[in-house]
C-alpha cells in the first residue's frame, strides 16, 4: 500500500516538474506573446541640443511602435548630467528593475567596460549611441550595439559646402581678396570620436577641393554654444579684420559663433558652417546666421536605436530587422543643407 503512495507521489512530482519546465520554455519562446517591454535610456547630458532632438524622436518611435504592434512600451529616459558615476548608478537601477534592454549615451566613452560587465552578468542587451565605446569593449559580447554617424562623412560633406561656394565665387569666402581663405575652428570635446575626425576631414576636403586655406586659430568649445561664443568674441577682438570662415564641429557652436558676430555688429559676411541639422541649427540656417550644415536623419537614428532595443527585448533576431555592419554597428545617413 505504502509503495503505491510512493509511486503516485513520484508520478505527481514528475508531472509537476515537466509541466514547470515546459511552462518555462513556453515563456522563453513566447516572443510574440509578450505584451509589454521595458527599456531604460540614459543620456550623457539632457541639455545637449543634438541629444535632446534624438530623445524626442526615440519617444515618438516608442509611441508609433505601441500603435503598430499593440505591445506596450515602458520607457524610462534619464539624464546623467555629465557624471559617469551617476550614469553607472542609473544603469544599475535599470538592471535591478529588470528592464529588458538598456540604451546608453556614455558620459565618458572610455568607461564603458563597467556598464558592459554588469549588463553581461544580468543578460541585458545594451544599445550604445552617439558616444562610441572603444572597439575592444564592443567586442566583448554579441548583445552590444552602437548607433552613430560616420564622422568622416559628416566632415567631407561639411567641407564640400565650402568647396562648392569657393568654386562658384572665390570672393564669397576670400572676403578681402588676398588669395587666401582665413578660417577659425571650433571643436567639440577632445575625447569625442566625432571631434577629431570631423576636424581632420573637413580641412582635408577643403584642401583637396583646391581652396587656399590659412588657419588663424582654433579652440575647443565642447559642443557648447556659450563656450563657442566666448572664443569667437576673443578672436574677433584679436583678429578683427582677418576672419572669413568659421568651421564648427556642430551646429550649437556655429550658433555661438554667430551670436558673437551679431554682438560685434560685423558687416563682413563671414561664413559659418556646422554639423547636426538640429531644429536650432535649421532655424539659424533660415535666418542667415549659419551658411550650411550637415544633417543626420534623426528619425532614422532614433528608429534604429529603438528597433534594436525592442527586438532584443522580445528575443527577436536584430540582424533581420536592422542592417548592421560587423553585426553590431549602424551609421545613420546624412545630407548637406545650405542657406541658398
Ligand atoms: C554632435 C554634437 C553633440 C555630441 C554629443 C555629436 O555627434 O554633433 O552636437 O553635442 O555629439 O555627444
Plain-language structure description:
The structure is a single chain. The protein folds into two domains: 36-149 and 298-332, Rossmann fold, CATH 3.40.50.2300; 152-296, Rossmann fold. Helices cover 49% and strands 19% of the residues. The protein has helices at 2-28, 49-69, 84-96, 112-122, 135-138, 151-168, 193-208, 225-238, 251-264, 279-286, 298-313, 318-321, and strands at residues 36-43, 72-79, 101-104, 126-129, 144-149, 181-187, 213-220, 245-248, 271-273, 292-296, 329-332, 334-338. A six-stranded parallel β-sheet has the order 2-1-3-4-5-11, with helices on both faces. Strands 7-6-8-9 form a four-stranded parallel β-sheet, sandwiched between helices. A two-stranded antiparallel sheet has the order 10-12. Residues 13-18 and 20-31 have low confidence and may be disordered. The structure holds beta-D-glucopyranose.
How many β-strand runs?
Answer: 12
The ligands found in this model are: beta-D-glucopyranose
CATH superfamily of the largest domain: Response regulator
pLDDT < 50 stretches: 13-18, 20-31
Oligomer: single chain
Class inferred from helices and paired strands: alpha/beta
* Euclidean distance between termini CA atoms: 96 Å
Helical content (DSSP H or I, runs of 4+)? 40-55%
- The second-level CATH architecture of the largest domain is 3-Layer(aba) Sandwich
**Cα shape:** elongated
Q: What proportion strand?
A: 15-25%
Helices and strands, in order, run as HEHEHEHEHEHEHEHEHEHEHHEE
| Average pLDDT | 93
- State the major sheet: 6 strands, parallel
How many distinct helices? 12
For the record, the count of structural domains works out to 2
Amino acid at each position: 500500500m505504502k509503495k503505491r503512495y510512493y509511486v503516485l507521489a513520484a508520478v505527481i512530482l514528475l508531472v509537476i516538474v515537466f509541466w514547470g519546465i515546459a511552462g518555462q520554455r513556453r515563456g522563453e519562446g513566447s516572443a510574440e506573446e509578450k505584451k509589454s517591454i521595458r527599456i531604460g535610456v540614459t543620456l550623457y547630458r539632457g541639455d545637449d541640443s543634438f541629444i535632446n532632438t534624438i530623445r524626442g524622436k526615440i519617444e515618438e518611435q516608442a509611441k508609433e511602435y505601441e500603435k503598430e504592434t499593440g505591445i506596450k512600451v515602458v520607457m524610462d529616459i534619464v539624464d546623467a548630467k555629465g557624471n559617469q558615476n551617476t550614469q553607472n548608478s542609473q544603469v544599475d537601477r535599470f538592471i535591478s528593475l529588470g528592464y529588458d534592454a538598456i540604451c546608453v549615451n556614455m558620459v565618458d566613452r572610455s568607461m564603458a567596460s563597467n556598464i558592459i560587465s554588469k549588463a553581461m552578468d544580468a543578460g541585458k542587451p545594451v544599445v550604445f549611441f552617439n558616444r562610441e565605446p572603444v572597439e575592444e569593449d564592443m567586442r566583448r559580447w554579441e548583445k552590444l550595439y552602437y548607433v552613430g554617424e560616420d564622422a568622416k562623412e559628416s566632415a567631407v560633406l561639411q567641407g564640400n559646402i565650402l568647396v562648392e561656394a569657393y568654386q562658384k565665387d572665390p570672393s564669397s569666402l576670400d572676403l578681402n581678396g588676398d588669395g587666401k581663405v582665413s578660417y577659425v575652428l571650433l571643436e567639440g570635446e577632445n575625447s569625442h570620436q566625432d571631434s577629431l575626425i570631423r576636424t581632420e576631414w573637413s580641412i582635408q576636403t577643403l584642401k583637396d577641393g583646391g581652396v587656399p586655406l590659412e588657419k588663424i586659430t582654433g579652440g575647443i568649445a565642447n559642443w557648447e554654444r556659450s563656450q563657442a561664443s566666448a572664443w569667437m568674441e576673443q578672436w574677433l577682438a584679436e583678429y578683427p579684420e582677418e576672419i572669413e570662415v568659421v568651421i564648427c564641429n556642430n551646429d550649437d557652436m556655429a550658433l555661438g559663433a554667430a551670436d558673437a558676430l551679431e554682438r560685434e555688429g560685423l558687416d563682413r559676411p563671414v561664413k559659418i558652417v556646422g554639423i547636426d541639422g538640429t531644429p536650432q541649427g535649421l532655424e539659424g540656417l533660415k535666418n542667415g546666421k549659419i551658411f550650411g550644415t550637415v544633417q543626420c536623419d534623426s528619425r532614422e537614428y532614433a528608429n534604429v536605436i529603438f528597433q534594436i532595443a525592442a527586438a532584443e527585448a522580445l528575443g527577436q533576431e536584430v540582424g533581420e530587422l536592422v542592417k548592421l555592419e560587423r553585426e553590431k554597428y549602424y551609421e545613420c545617413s546624412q545630407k548637406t543643407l545650405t542657406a541658398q
